[in-house]
Write a structure and sequence with these properties.
Layout: E1 6-10, H1 15-30, E2 34-38, H2 44-54, E3 58-62, E4 77-82, E5 86-87, E6 90-91, E7 101-104, E8 120-122, E9 141-146, H3 155-159, E10 161-164, E11 167-170, H4 171-180, H5 190-202, H6 212-225, H7 229-240, E12 244-247, H8 269-277, E13 279-284, H9 291-298, E14 303-306, E15 328-330, H10 335-343, H11 346-363, H12 366-378
Parallel strand pairs: 1-2, 1-3, 3-4, 4-7, 7-8, 9-12, 9-13, 13-14, 14-15
Antiparallel strand pairs: 5-6, 10-11
Length: 380
């Protein structure tokens, strides 16, 4: 088996993606592999020069496939790790392909990717247990949340004209269509979202062919409209307890009920670990195997996670952790009751946190993710 000596890793400068880059860099370097990381994408000429000088055994890129590198035809082994369907207002799905190995943290078809473009596998986020760990602190807050909260849609946003070939509509009309389809952030599936939007458009233009306008709507819903679900969920948490702290960018700091609980923007790992350690419950909404979930678990604190239709699917939370034993499960309609009931039993909270910490350290470290990539590379 040939030894891997050098690796190049690239992504766009998104905060959550940089966390993944740092995790892999430390893991590979601990294994004696030299790593060069970049926080923007190289064009084909620059990538070719980098390969010629550094001579990596493979390139790993987050949210870009080989075919999406402009003017590039070098024979380097290319690995794509998909996190999104759009980034920096670019449709990542369009033109995707050509990589020797493709990873996604969920079934890639849920994000709109074609499973026929090459080899796909699940690759999950991970955590460094030396960075996220129990600090022996008594909880200061009953519930904390660290996340981005999207800004609400104004009347101007809702009434703005959206142009498609042959007709115009408004965002208000489109939102009513999506809500009628029962889609929320907790059950978001980009395939379903695209189908709902396509039906809406083709009722007005039967010969419409998907274009950038459709992907723009998909991105708007997944990145902003659907995530506003977090406002009502946190309002429900506040009905259960006022001892709440929220951290992150966006609307938290001015939302009338939540702004008194806003603690600021958190970027340092050490601050995130301290916040987790001072929390009785850590709130999460969305994809279960998220880095924030694993970080809280590694700190030995129980995580409050929303039920989704995908929990038992590949990459789903139930594939790796047991509800009630390793985390606290809630439904979007019952979060208030779940929080109130869970906070009554402090001994149960302690047990859940300890169970989650043990399983996270045993199975979900960056070293293990790096080892999986190396195994898959050698098994190509």
């Amino acid at each position: 088996m040939p030894e891997v000596r050098r690796v190049g890793i690239f992504c766009q400068p998104e905060y959550i993606l940089l966390n993944q880059i740092f995790g892999f860099q430390l893991a590979f370097e601990a294994m004696g592999i030299e790593v060069v990381t970049g926080y923007s994408f190289l064009n084909g000429g620059h990538m070719a020069r980098f390969i010629d000088e550094f001579k990596p055994d493979f390139i790993l890129e987050i949210n870009r496939s080989r075919n999406q590198i402009p003017n590039f035809d070098d024979k380097i082994f290319h690995i794509s790790w998909v996190w999104d369907h759009t980034a920096h207002d670019v449709d990542i799905v369009n033109g995707f392909g050509g990589s020797d190995l493709n990873y996604c943290f969920i079934d890639a078809k849920r994000l709109g990717y074609d499973d026929k473009v090459g080899r796909w596998d699940i690759l999950l986020p991970a955590v460094d247990p030396l960075v996220f760990f129990p600090m022996g602190l008594d909880p200061r807050w009953d519930v904390t949340a660290i996340a981005h909260l999207c800004w609400p849609l104004t009347d101007a946003d809702l009434n703005a004209t959206i142009k498609f070939p042959g007709f115009t509509t408004t965002l208000r009309e489109v939102i009513a269509e999506v809500e009628g389809g029962g889609l929320g952030y907790w059950n978001a599936d980009m395939r379903v979202l695209k189908e709902i939007l396509l039906r809406f458009i083709r009722r007005r233009n039967p010969v419409y062919r998907p274009d950038a306008g459709l992907m723009g709507l998909v991105g708007l819903f997944s990145n902003r409209v659907l995530r506003l679900e977090r406002v009502s969920l946190m309002h429900a948490v506040l009905r259960a307890t006022q001892n709440v702290a929220v951290f992150g960018t966006g609307y938290w700091r001015v939302e009338p009920k939540l702004s008194p609980h806003w603690g600021g923007v958190v970027t340092r790992y050490s601050d995130k670990n301290a916040i987790n350690n001072m929390s009785s419950l850590v709130f999460h909404n969305g994809f279960g195997m998220h880095e924030r979930v694993l970080e809280a678990m590694a700190a030995g604190r129980p995580v409050l996670v929303s039920r989704t239709p995908f929990d038992d699917a590949p990459g789903g939370l139930n594939q790796y952790f047991e509800p009630g034993r390793d985390f606290v499960l809630y439904d979007v309609e019952t979060v208030e009751d779940v929080v109130r009931e869970t906070l009554r039993d402090r001994e149960r909270l302690r047990r859940i946190g300890e169970n989650a910490r043990a399983r996270t350290v045993a199975e979900h470290t960056w070293r293990q993710r790096a080892e999986k990539i190396l195994r898959d590379f050698h098994d190509r």
